[in-house]
């Protein structure tokens, strides 16, 4: 009698220090997701001002960190600034892991895509997506593809890409600019074909996938366009296509605002299951 094979598990990059004293669900859901994930996490080293300046105007970064300008929550808080330093760092740590080892890694982070080059709004302060993309480029990756599955337009990401003239090396696929209602109703195969086409067109060395939970039709912000099952098929299709192309993926937990937070956490755990299963399928015993 042989013991059951150990299935590959998606590594999760996360620090408890990402949780600040702010009640908003985008922060408070993180410990619930980690508890549900049932695995050890890898803790990143926090970012510094210099890291944030890879995506943002120096004076903006300095003002937020010195508590002379508000963060994306509209407050001035050393606790939130510390959380942000770990949150952005966890996405790069996941991306770096995926680049070095292939496959998929998860960053239990959120709150990036509305952070613009020199300003913030919508609960985003620093754009961890753009920072991770720039670090990947510095490590030798030629192109980074951001598949932003959040139900809202990633305007901050576009702002940073424009200000930093990254348009040829960082591709932002965001709501209604490449992803959105046009994909509603797709099964996993459809999402895989959709992702396959993006990978063929852009040939990225890294995918940053924001598995936004607010694309769920039951999300209270009302921007969702996918059923619970369709959300799972989206994740399955994206992961399957990336692994087939041998393109490393780092994904995170964007969006998702249900009260209580159970459904949002369930959506994120559904993404984690899809991630684990994609790794299993790609590494036959
Ligand atoms: Zn959103």
Provide key terms for this protein.
binds zinc ion; 11% strand; 285 residues; eight-stranded parallel sheet; 8 strands; alpha/beta; Arginase, Chain A
Write structural notes for this entry:
- Helix content is about 45%, strand content about 10%.
- The chain is an alpha/beta fold and about 280 residues long.
- Helix 7 packs across helix 8 and helix 8 packs parallel to helix 9.
- It has nine helices and eight strands.
- An eight-stranded parallel beta sheet has the order 2-1-3-8-7-4-5-6, with helices on both faces.
- The chain has a single domain, classed as Arginase, Chain A (3-Layer(aba) Sandwich), CATH 3.40.800.
- It binds zinc ion.
- Zinc ion binds next to loops.
Outline of the structure:
This protein is of the alpha/beta class and 285 residues long.
